[in-house]
Design brief:
Elements: H1 3-15, H2 23-27, E1 45-48, E2 54-55, E3 62-63, H3 69-82, H4 96-106, H5 113-125, E4 132-135, H6 164-167, H7 169-181, H8 183-197
Parallel strand pairs: 1-4
Antiparallel strand pairs: 2-3
Length: 215
């Protein structure tokens, strides 16, 4: 199945009966003038967004999206390949900004009577491409570094954390330098301690007067 057919199948499934061309557009042979353009606008279908969860007003529970994240990613991929990204609803895998940019890049027709005629012909020939108003609020997750295309290391102090001995090397060197600065003094104190305790190591140790048994 081609990429365009995947998007077309999705649109027809969501539109349902509204995907059929209206009888007025199917029977008419002459297109309306600019004066009656406001009366004969193509109706916009209002459909619930199948890419976001839905709240049940009766039970107060949230129903999961109609399409899983994997299915949404596949639809977005196929829409990018076929150039029909503007036909998809916004969701976790595609933002409103991307859809608006795709729609703006695809709209090369100047507004006017000729644009209305061309849009009606296109909608009559391919009713699954008619505009849809997707209902539901899409909460976009703000990701650091998404605007510059580097989300992996955005907001981090260093790019690679390295080994633990590398991360603690600077602190360890400072402590080592501090200890080495007073090392001769501490060695001298260490030796004097045992000299005071046992001035003559070869002689038997002196016992305290009030020595007690260990039991």
């Amino acid at each position: 199945m081609s990429a365009l057919q995947v998007v077309k199948r999705f649109r027809i499934r969501e539109l349902g009966a509204t995907a059929l061309p209206s009888p007025a557009l199917a029977k008419t042979k002459s297109y309306p003038s600019s004066a009656s353009s406001s009366r004969n606008k193509v109706p916009v279908a209002s459909i619930e967004n199948p890419f976001i969860p839905k709240l049940n007003s009766k039970t107060g529970r949230w129903a999961p999206p109609k399409y899983s994240l994997r299915q949404q990613a596949l639809l977005v991929k196929k829409a990018r390949e076929s150039g029909t990204l503007a036909l998809l609803p916004p969701g976790p895998k595609i933002s409103v900004v991307e859809i608006a940019a795709a729609a703006a890049s695809g709209q090369a027709i100047i507004p006017g009577p000729s644009a209305l005629v061309k849009s009606q012909v296109q909608n009559a020939a391919a009713p699954w491409t008619r505009p849809i108003e997707w209902t539901g609020e899409v909460k976009e997750k703000k990701v650091l570094g998404a605007e510059v295309g580097n989300r992996l290391y955005a907001g981090k102090k260093r790019m690679f954390k390295g080994h633990k001995w590398q991360r603690t090397a600077e602190k360890r060197e400072k402590r080592r330098a501090l200890l080495m600065r007073s090392m001769p003094k501490r060695i001298k104190e260490f030796k004097q301690y045992y000299k005071r305790r046992r001035p003559h190591p070869l002689k038997p140790p002196r016992t305290a007067k009030n020595a007690k048994l260990p039991f």
